[in-house]
Amino acid sequence: MLKAFILILSLLLSAGLVATFGFTALAVCFGLAFLTLVGSTQGCNEEEIAETATAPTAGLQAVH
Predict the structure, then answer these.
(1) What's the burial of 46, exposed, middle or buried (CB within 10 Å: 0-12/13-18/19+)?
(2) Most-buried pick from 26, 44, 59, 64 (CB within 10 A)?
(3) Rounded to an integer, what is the distance from CA 55 to the centroid of its chain?
(4) pLDDT in tens, 16-43
(5) pTM (2 d.p.)
(6) How does 1-31 read in b/e, with b if 16+ C-beta sit within 10 Å?
(7) How would you write the chain as a 3-class SS string?
């Protein structure tokens, strides 16, 4: 139900952007969303993530 609502809302938002500002506004919005996705995934070092995931926490050390 929620997915259907989001899909309908996104279509209405896209149609509203095109009707108000033209196709350029829609292209700019999708471009900004794509750049946000690319920018948020850069700089993640896999080795650092693995070290953090396997490092014991202070709470676990106190139990031993």
Answers:
(1) exposed
(2) 26
(3) 27
(4) 888 888 888 888 888 988 988 888 767 6
(5) 0.48
(6) eeeeeeeeeeeeeeeebeeeeeeeebeeeee
(7) CHHHHHHHHHHHHHHHHHHHHCHHHHHHHHHHHHHHHHHHHCCCCHHHHHHHHHCCCHHHHHHC
Q: In this structure, what token pair is assigned to residue 18?
A: 């095109």
Which residue is it, tokens 């396997």? 54
Amino acid found at 41: T
